Amino acid sequence: MRTVYVNGVYLPEDQAQVSIFDRGFLFGDAVYEVTAVMNGKMVDFDAHMDRLERSMSELDMSNGYERKDLLAIHKALIERNDLEEGLVYLQVTRGVADRDFDFSGLDAPLGLVLFTQAKSLESNPLAARGQKIVLADDQRWGRADIKTVQLLYSSLMKTRAKKQGADDVWLCRDGKITEGSSNNAYIVSHNNEIITRELSTDILHGITRVSVLKIAEAHQLKIVERAFSVDELMSAKEAFSTSASGFVNPVVSVNGTAIGNGEPGEVTEALRASYVRESQAASI
Ligand code: PMP
After folding, report:
1. Confidence band (pLDDT; 50, 70, 90) for 57?
2. Residue 147 annotated in active site
3. Model's pTM, two decimal places?
4. How far does the centroid of ligand 1 lie from the alpha carbon of residue 98, in Å?
5. Full residue range of the structural domain in which residue 54 is found
């Protein structure tokens, strides 16, 4: 049984409890981070904590956490759960209060929950065979840049994708791809440009995105940060997604049509290999 962390205490998972009045539960008033663990060490911990601070500040959540304390909790959970490969999930909620839309004047302590989840990251079967993607309208709220736990739309669309025999969904706004259900989206053009939507409130600012774009630059690939259309996607040489728990994952078909030759692309595979090597080397 796992040991989890809830509001200051480490507990066996079946004894951990949160209040039914927690605003995370009642309003989705909570933010989260997911940090990958390889060989018992975390990838990009500081970048995840920087993004957590940004999410909290965008939602006017006062942040009383010290980064060194959050680091200690992450490390303690990895150790107590003997986690070699997988992820640490962290969630901060606005805390417990009587149900009220208006949270001004509320000074409840924030809620903090962390748990580990074992997962095979490096030898993910999707990396080898490539993902089948279906497209759906992006009907999420307009602040996709804040990492809130309001994931219902993405969850519905991913479930629908699975029912259709696909692996995941990419979302579209005005004929252009925004991002995947839980990943950033890219195409590789026929002249080897890496094209991915520019940062805005339309997408989550992926931590893996930053690392992979740096690696692409080191591979002498041209990076173009702009929205790409569904037509461009369908005729791209390669497509792939990035996320902390998926790393770099090739896309081999979209709505049943093969992308490129219908196999994981060579640029994608090179980026994945470099990402795995470099993030492992820099993990803490
Ligand atoms: N977009 C969305 C909507 C996500 O949920 C995620 C995963 N958290 C990402 C992109 C990728 O972000 P990261 O590389 O930081 O995991």
Report:
1. very high
2. yes
3. 0.97
4. 32
5. 3-118
